[in-house]
Amino acid sequence: MTIAAFAGGGSDSPPPSAASPGRPQTAADGFSVWAANGCGSCHTFKPAGSSSPIGPDLQQTLRGKDRGYVTASIVAPGTAAAPGFETGMMPGDFSQRIAPGDLELLVDYILAGVHAQ
Q1: Whether pLDDT at 96 is above 80
Q2: Of 10, 13, 31, 76, which is most buried, counting CB atoms within 10 Å of its CB?
Q3: What proportion of the chain, given as a percentage, has pLDDT over 70?
């Protein structure tokens, strides 16, 4: 199954953090977290140049949502699903695979892209 291959990550250890103490974080850092975790293999998100129909279009489904909702959607994706999608499709282990600082960068990146419409 292709989704499992992208979602699996191939390692039990988390990837290196994109967050570096002492330097300002940028949208490129958030994109790095997006890319490292294969988000574009399932989600359409114009700011990232991804157009996969497997998961919801984030600019559409996250419009009007707050930081807490976006964070929960990543780390506890089984709690709710976007209209037209089922729960259980997105891997549920991102809270273990994404370092807390990187999660913040990813959420910032997604929210900036959603608000840029």
Answers
A1: yes
A2: 31
A3: 78
Report residue 111 as tokens.
């929210």
Number of domains comprising the chain: 1
pLDDT band at 116 (very low <50, low <70, confident <90, very high): confident
3-state secondary structure the chain: CHHHHHHHCCCCCCCCCCCCCCCCCCHHHHHHHHHHCCHHHCCEEHHHCEECCCCCEHHHHCCCCCHHHHHHHHHCHHHCCCCCCCCCCCCCCHHHHCCHHHHHHHHHHHHHHHHCC
